[in-house]
Specification:
One of its GO terms (cellular component) is nucleus. This is WRKY domain-containing protein. InterPro entries: WRKY_dom, WRKY_dom_sf, WRKY_plant. By secondary structure, the protein is mainly beta. The protein has a domain of about 60 residues: N-terminal domain of TfIIb, CATH 2.20.25. The chain has a five-stranded antiparallel beta sheet, with no helix packed on it. The protein is elongated and about 35 Å long. The N and C termini lie far apart (about 45 Å). It binds a DNA duplex through β1.
DNA sequence: ATAGTTTGACCGCGA
DNA sequence: GTCGCGGTCAAACTA
């Protein structure tokens, strides 16, 4: 933080105050900016990223996503290997509201109560398909 | 102005 | 009792 702005550099001065490289590399190296960079496996729900960390245990980057709905205790974790386009999505919990309606965007309404999606995802692993053979 | 995203730091649990 | 890891929150910035 503190990269663009903020008077933090008062100490001394090493001036500069310029930094444009806004690291946008959040996902695995997208190779070229042309071919559709890795798209997140949309499940039909909207997620909000609330954290990202590098798990050294498996040497992978793990991103934490939470359902936009507070009533929805659904959580999603996406992890990938630095250098591998394969993504592994781990679903935790289940959504308590129907799909976000339809609309491709927000809507609202839609479903909502009434049916609880009975898809008890207690930790499903979505293999990117590449070098992640579910081995099974 | 809002939403979404990003990074750092903090906490809890386990070994 | 200590250390490490994993997970979450808050703050800040950008679009």
């Amino acid at each position: 933080m503190a990269s663009t702005s903020q008077p933090a550099m008062a100490t001394a001065g090493s001036g500069h105050g310029d930094e444009q490289v806004q690291r946008q590399a959040t996902w695995p190296e997208e190779a070229d900016g042309g071919s559709q960079p890795l798209v997140m496996p949309e499940d039909g729900y909207q997620w909000k990223k609330y954290g990202q960390k590098f798990i050294k245990n498996i040497q992978k980057i793990r991103s934490y996503f939470r359902c936009r709905d507070r009533r929805c205790g659904a959580k999603k974790k996406v992890e990938w290997q630095p250098g591998d386009p394969s993504l592994r999505v781990v679903y935790d919990g289940a959504h308590q509201h129907g799909s976000p309606s339809s609309s491709s965007s927000h809507g609202g309404g839609g479903g909502q109560d009434g049916d609880g999606n009975r898809y008890e995802l207690s930790a499903q692993y979505f293999g990117g398909g590449a070098p992640t053979p579910q081995a099974r």
